[in-house]
TrEMBL record:
Stated name of the protein: Phenylalanine--tRNA ligase alpha subunit
Coiled coil: none
Entries under InterPro entries matching the protein: aa-tRNA-synth_II, aa-tRNA-synth_II/BPL/LPL, Phe-tRNA-synth_IIc_asu, Phe-tRNA_ligase_II_N, Phe_tRNA_ligase_alpha1_bac, Phenylalanyl-tRNA_Synthase, tRNA-bd_arm
PANTHER family membership: PHENYLALANINE--TRNA LIGASE, MITOCHONDRIAL, PHENYLALANYL-TRNA SYNTHETASE
EC number of the protein: 6.1.1.20
Entry binding sites for Mg(2+): 261
Taxonomic path: Bacteria, Pseudomonadati, Pseudomonadota, Alphaproteobacteria, Sphingomonadales
Gene Ontology annotations for the cellular component aspect, listed alphabetically: cytoplasm
Organism: Sphingopyxis flava
Secretion signal, residue range per the UniProt entry: none
Catalyzed reaction equations: tRNA(Phe) + L-phenylalanine + ATP = L-phenylalanyl-tRNA(Phe) + AMP + diphosphate + H(+)
Encoding gene per record: pheS
Length: 366
């Protein structure tokens, strides 16, 4: 009969000293493999007498058990060490200087959004956002746009399938304008409110001047005693800072939007120089014309009431403008579709350096 405790001690010691996973595997095969030493002992059980087997069987099985456990423990230890070594080896020093100058540029739309935020922050406006997937109450109803308004027609609005209603049973859609951010802001924040809300909007429309996705910026001021003079001053100050010239002349034309009363469309004077529209001067001046730039007005009292505010106490103005349009006018692109083509030549020509952040002191167009 073999000395099982001595054999077990030797095998377990060898396993514990295995330097790597390959060596451990060799030891496993040598002990537990088909022709391994422990397997050979197990085979001797068959030839033993009943008494011998009752005495030695449990010892041999305990030996196999101990060897199996020792192998599993060593394996876990070696694998853990291998992972630690790999992690240490693959460490990257993120503070090292880049080996290559980064390519890429800031898209003009992002640039203009940064410019808008900078200009309006100087006037005390915060930047607000809302989701692009909106419900029809915030996109239309709360903005005083009745069911029968043409903007609600399927042909303008991308609706989600009718079974995809929100928790309140409202139809879901891709917002058609940034105006629902007015509703969200008035419902979430107590006045006084001064925000701009730039972002993506969607309409089922596509040609040289329309893309199914485009960008708008919304403005909203709610306070006591706000009137159209505040609106006109704000837009004039904004456009002078944005176009970086003092001779900006605005014309407010009476108009209609369901969410403002009274409403005004704002035109800006421009002249054509070398085939490009250059903003500045009165549209009535020699060689000048008027161009529509934004929609605006005093926030309709129904809209203020829809948001749970008392329209006798709180008034305000709102405006909305196309960001892509503003970018084209300032930076001279002539096809809106190119904004969304991702053409590297266009991006490197019209894009902005990532580090040239617009500031009022350093120059708004960087
Ligand atoms: N939401 C309007 C649109 O998409 C633009 C607009 C007009 C926004 C007048 C306003 C506003 O806030 O007062 O056509």
């Amino acid at each position: 009969m073999s000395d099982y405790p001595a054999l077990q001690a030797r095998l377990v010691a060898d396993i514990g000293a295995a330097p790597d996973l390959d060596a451990l595997e060799s030891l496993r095969v040598a002990a537990l493999g088909k022709t391994g030493s422990v397997s050979a002992l197990l085979k001797t059980l068959g030839a033993m007498s009943t008494e011998e087997r009752q005495e030695q069987g449990p010892q041999i099985h305990a030996l196999r058990e101990a060897v199996t456990t020792a192998i599993a423990e060593r394996k876990a230890a070696l694998e853990g060490a291998a992972l630690e070594a790999k992690l240490a080896d693959e460490r990257l020093d993120m503070t090292l200087p880049a080996a290559e100058t980064p390519r890429g540029s800031v898209h003009p739309v992002s640039q203009v959004m940064d410019e808008l935020a900078e200009i309006f922050a100087d006037m005390g406006f915060a930047v607000a956002t809302g989701p692009e997937i909106e419900d029809d109450w915030r996109n239309f109803t709360a903005l005083n746009i009745p069911e029968t308004h043409p903007a609600r027609a399927m042909h303008d609005t991308f609706y989600f399938p009718s079974q995809m209603k929100d928790a309140e049973g409202r139809a879901m859609l891709l917002r058609t304008h940034t105006s629902p951010v007015q509703i969200r802001t008035m419902m979430e924040k107590a006045p006084p409110i001064r925000i701009i809300a730039p972002g993506r909007v969607y309409r089922s429309d596509s040609d040289a001047t329309h893309t199914p996705m485009f960008h708008q910026v919304e403005g909203l001021v709610i306070d006591r005693g706000i009137h159209m003079g505040h609106l006109k001053w704000t837009l004039e100050t904004f456009l002078k800072a944005y176009f970086e010239r003092d001779d900006i002349v605005l014309r407010l034309r009476p108009s209609y939007f369901p969410f403002t009363e009274p409403s005004a469309e704002v035109d800006v004077g421009y002249a054509v120089e070398k085939g490009r529209r250059i903003v500045g001067g009165s549209g009535d001046d020699e060689g000048h014309a008027w161009m529509e730039l934004l929609g605006s007005g005093m926030v309709n009292r129904h809209v203020i009431a829809n948001c749970g505010l008392d329209p006798d106490e709180w008034q305000g103005f709102a405006f909305g403008a196309g960001i892509d349009r503003l970018a084209m006018l300032k930076y001279g692109m002539d096809d809106l579709r190119a904004f969304f083509d991702g053409d590297l030549r266009w991006l490197s020509h019209y894009g902005f350096g990532a580090l040239s952040v617009p500031t009022l002191s350093g120059g708004i167009s960087a």
